[in-house]
Structures are given as C-alpha cells and as structure tokens.
C-alpha cells in the first residue's frame, strides 16, 4: 500500500484485493459484543470536511473509532476556513496538532492531492471525495459489496462481471472511481447516461458507454444508479425531471428485465421517484443499506492498512 | 490422517523435505496430538464445556485435529474456531501493516466456557498475550488453557502452556518450523540453524 489513498486508479489489483479481504474480516466485528480493535490506539485521524457530507464523515468516524483512533472533526462551516484561511494554513495547523491521517473532502478536484504532495503535512491523506474527480473509498465499498454478492464464491473474484453505472456521470466522482477500480479488478463497466451527462473525454476511460438503458440492463450483474446532482447543475442537461426519470430511471418494469442474481446499488443519498422508484429501492435486489454497513468495514480496512504498520521499519 | 502406510523415518514423501533436522515426523505429531487431546479431557473432566480456538495460521488445523480426536473419544463434537491476534500484537507498529487472518468464533460464544487456545510453537509468549487480549473483547470464558505442539523456550512474558506436544530446547538463532498437511502438504516439525532463510514460525 502507498502512504495515501488519493485515487482508485493508484491501487494495484493486489492492493485492492488486500483491502477487500481485510474488510471482509473487519465486517464481522459488527456482530461482536465489543465492536472495537486496538490497532490504531494513540493515533489521531482528522476528518477535514470542506463540503457537507454527513454520511461519509460518520462512516469514517465510526471506522476510526472502532480501531481505537482518536478522531477530530473539522468542518469548514463556522471554522477558520469561513474566515478566509487557506488550505495550506489549515493543513499546517493540523500538522502541528499531530494528525496521523487526514481524511479530506473538498469541493475542488485535486485538493487531496495538493495536501498529500505539497510537503505541508507528514500524515497520510485519504481522499473522501474531491469535486467531481474521485471518491475512492466509495468505489472500494461498492466493489466490496459486489464482491460479497458476485465474486466471493468464484475464482477470479469480479473478473468478467458486468456492471452498469447509470445516471449523472458528469457530476459524479463515484462513477470515475468505480470505473477505475472495477477495471483493476477485471470487471466490465458500462456507463449509461444521456449524452449531456457524460463527461468530456469519457472515451479515454476504461469503459463502454450507452445512451439506452433498456439495451444494457439484461446483460449486467450489478446496476448502480447515480443521483442527479442538481445542486451542481447550472444549465439544461435534460428537459424535465419527468423525462429523465422515464428514460433513465430504474422502475419495476426495468427491474423485471434484470437477471435473477443482479443486484441494485446506489451510493446515496438517493432521490426516490427520480433515478430510482421506491419499490426498486426497497426490493430484495437492493443492497443499498448493506452498502452503508460495508462502508464502515472498508474504511476501517483502509485506515488500518495505511496507519496500522510502519512501512519504513520492515 | 490418510497416510498411515508411510515409512516412519521420513515424513512427506510426496513433497520436498523441509530444510533442517526433523524433530517430529507425521507419526510423532499424530501421537502428540492424541496425548494432548486426552490430557485436555482428563484435566477438564470431559469435553462438554470446551471451546477450541486455533491461532492462525498453523494453530487452526491443529485445533481441528484435536477436536476430531476428542469427538472420537467422547462421541460428541466440540466447537472449534479461530482467533486472529494481528490487531492485538505489540509489534504492530514495527512492521508494515499485515493482512488479517480469519477470526471465527463458534456461534454459541465463549462465555462461561473453557477455552483452549491452540498454537503451533510457543516461543516469546507475545502471541499468547495478544490472544488473551483478543479473547477479552470476545467474551468471558470460565477458564483459558493453552495447548501447543512445540514449546521451544525463551519466554519473554510470564506465560506457560498447559498442554505441550514436545519441549524442544533451542538456541535463539535456531528456527523451528511447523508444517501441517492442511496448509503445507506435509506434517513435520523441523529445526534449522537459521541460515537457510526459511521464514518459519520462529517468531510465534
């Protein structure tokens, strides 16, 4: 493992599989009476969130606490950042406080990379979502969820499994991280979106693209629905929500076209009635709630593998 | 225990012989495990409240073999599990982060039962200290016992085994390696002078 986790594309297949197998062991911890391990005792993890993200922050906080690390939450609202402090000065402050890992969520793509490689901090940096760029721990928890359902019982894991990622790819950091990681793990990804919601340069991604959800769905092993990020939209990407939902939403009729073993995923928060209907979200195929549970286990695995040992002391 | 026909002198005809001097061969290991199984039952006056927990990796198959022998003698199955102690080790910070191994606690738990920890080699005692800490987070056994295949001495903590397959006096530079058929294709305990670079379980 490298010292930082900035991009899902940085992970080799061995790294990714080590994280998944570690997460598999850590997931059982949730069933024990004492949900705590001593591995990171005395280490400090700072959650540095420049954007609101309750679920990701809580997930990282639970993961760090279950490994006995001390957690400091640093939210930009009401902090020195709103008074005009720069990323650099915030970083230097955290360094002076002795953070061993900084989990950073930032609205600007590349902010975690800047933090990791600027020399401002010595701690490990974990990207918890930067702009429309990447969200590697979300990709890991998605891959872990797929692996539990589709890969655990067969040699090669997710090798050759087909995954459709449907919706607002343009504004989604989850889609990019997922495409990179799933390609590393040997799965085949198809992005399905209206032309206006596919990013420029998507032809350089290791994926196929399609505008027609009904042609793609019958052949896939997992469908991941993305939220339409209307807060990031300032333009006409589709005529009306109703038309979007009719052409790209997952409803009971489309769900009936899926293979029996196919799972339905959503990184959350979902908008019921927009990209996914309530009966699909609550159906047997939906693993959306399990994704949240798996998120804690995967983030524990990442924090343990980044901080648990000492790379230089081998 | 499928190969009783094998000559008693050298174990593992189907796999390359382990480096170093063989101190226990397949039959010696089988006899030692049988004796340990009987000692556990004798000491515990039966096996009704026993739980066997192997410490990965080699302790787990050994725990299963002891359970088989207990089942053969007593006529009922004893719960067997595994307990990974990686996160409880005191040298976690000294090495790169290690992959975790399987922890599998039997469904009835360990509360108010007699837990027998099973490991291959007892050396510094630090693994067992970590295992005691790990047990503490899983439940509260009525007693904890320790069974090891080989006790090679050089304890660094006040820990001793209750059931020992073989006491093996060693020097600190020597390496003791336990191989079991389930993971290594051969049952053998070997001792070497540490110059052959085998990784072994010498740190156990």
Description:
The complex is a heterodimer of chains A (314) and B (204). Chain A is globular, with a radius of gyration of 19 Å. Chain A folds into two domains: 8-134 and 293-313, Aspartate/ornithine carbamoyltransferase (Rossmann fold), CATH 3.40.50; 136-290, Rossmann fold, CATH 3.40.50.1370. The model of chain A has no long low-confidence stretch (mean pLDDT 91). Chain A starts with 12 loop residues before the first helix and ends in a 7-residue tail after the last helix. By secondary structure, chain A is of the alpha/beta class. In chain A, strand 3, helix 4 and strand 4 form a beta-alpha-beta unit. Chain A contains eleven helices and nine strands. With 204 residues, chain B is of the alpha/beta class. Chain B has one domain (21-89, 99-192): Rossmann fold (3-Layer(aba) Sandwich). Chain B has four helices and eight strands, in the order E-H-E-H-E-E-H-E-E-E-H-E. In chain B, the strands form two sheets. A five-stranded parallel sheet of chain B has the order 3-2-4-5-6, with helices on both faces. In chain B, helix 1 crosses helix 2. The longest helix of chain B has 19 residues, at 26-44. The two termini of chain B are 25 Å apart. Chain A binds chain B through residues 1, 18, 21-22, 25-26, 28, 32-34, 36-39, 67, 304-311, 313-314, and chain B through 84, 87-88, 92-103, 105, 133, 137-139. Chain A: It holds the Pfam family OTCace. Chain A: Carbamoyl phosphate binds at residues 55-56, 105, 135, 138, 268-269.
Write the H/E string of chain A, N to C. HEHEHEHEHEHEEHEHHEHH
Name the largest protein-protein interface in this structure: A-B, 25 and 20 residues
Q: What shape does the CA trace of chain B take?
A: globular
Helix content of chain B: 25-40%
Describe how the helices and strands are arranged.
The complex is a heterodimer of chains A (314) and B (204).
Chain A (H helix, E strand, L loop, with lengths): L12 H15 L16 E6 L4 H13 L3 E6 L11 H11 L3 E6 L4 H7 L6 E7 L5 H16 L10 E5 L6 H12 L3 E5 L15 E3 L2 H4 L5 E4 L15 H8 L3 H4 L7 E3 L12 H4 L6 H20 L7
Helix pairs in contact in A: 1-5, 1-11, 2-11, 5-6, 5-11
Chain B lengths: L20 E4 L1 H19 L5 E5 L4 H16 L5 E3 L31 E9 L3 H13 L4 E9 L11 E5 L7 E5 L1 H4 L3 E5 L12
